[in-house]
Write a structure and sequence with these properties.
The chain is of the alpha/beta class. 30% of the residues lie in helices and 25% in strands. It has helices at 15-32, 101-117, 187-191, 197-212, 223-237, 240-243; strands spanning 3-9, 35-40, 46-49, 69-71, 79-81, 84-91, 124-125, 148-150, 153-163, 166-174, 214-218. The model has no long low-confidence stretch (mean pLDDT 96).
Length: 246
């Protein structure tokens, strides 16, 4: 059965605002009853720490030292958000996908792989996690089952958070190398392509529509969600106490 999905596409914004929007959508999911897919970008280039990472650990990565920093509400390693497309998919508890968190993860990443194939880019899912004596600071230097890799470089990773049985999954798709993370090539670097953010987004939408049987309707945040965004941004993602809590 086709599911109607609210589609939000946002212009590049500050990390604290981006994280507050995702959080507000998740907190409002059961109230709105809406499945929401959101695409967004970041400006300036920003480091997002995983929820469990220490603030001091960011000192280990010198190239991103000048980037502003925000702590995510989801786990995993730090991400330098720059030349990438970020997505978030939020489903309320009444959606069948709310009880299929691993399937949600795999289907989104498989849709990306199908999307990339239309650009003649071969990508695959990681089947075995990588083991490290010391876990890398950067998410894209780690390997978890279900990550997307191209030429053995990670190009997409995602994380999930749940509130009241609603679930948010967000992830970053690395399109090109950032000066703030020069050790991480993106899809265009690896494949000698010039895929734009818009091209990637449109083709990914097509694949998500087919994979999930979604029908998209362009939308925006509700008035109550907008109010939540401001409050969450001030009290959490702009807060020094939140950023330095670990």
């Amino acid at each position: 059965m086709t599911q109607i999905v609210r589609l939000i596409t946002d212009p590049p914004s500050a990390g604290s605002w981006n994280m507050a929007v995702d959080q507000a959508i998740l907190e409002s999911a059961n109230e709105t009853g809406s499945v929401t897919l959101r695409f967004y970008q970041w400006t300036p280039a920003t480091v997002s720490l995983g929820y469990f990472q220490s603030l001091e650990s960011r000192d280990a990565h010198e190239p991103s030292a000048e980037c502003p920093i925000v702590r995510r509400a989801t786990g995993g390693g730090a991400i330098v958000h720059d030349r990438e497309l970020t997505y978030s998919l939020c489903v309320p508890s009444r959606s069948r996908w709310a009880d299929e968190n691993q399937t949600l993860y795999t289907k989104m990443h498989s849709a990306l792989i199908a999307c990339l194939s239309t650009f003649n880019v071969t990508a695959t899912l990681v089947e075995q996690p990588a083991e490290f004596a010391v876990e890398p600071f950067l998410c894209f230097e780690r390997r978890a089952v279900g990550d997307v890799v191209c030429q053995n470089y990670k190009i997409c990773g995602s994380a999930q958070r749940r509130i009241d049985k609603s679930i948010l999954q967000h992830g970053s798709i690395l399109l090109a190398k950032s000066e703030s993370a020069p050790e991480l090539p993106g899809i265009n670097d690896l494949e000698n392509k010039s895929i734009s953010i818009d091209e990637l987004q449109q083709q990914l939408l097509t694949q998500i529509r087919q994979s999930f049987d979604f029908e998209f309707e362009f939308g925006e945040l509700s008035s109550s969600e907008n109010a939540k965004v401001g409050e969450i941004q001030r009290n959490r993602f702009q807060s020094e106490a939140w950023t330095a809590k670990r």
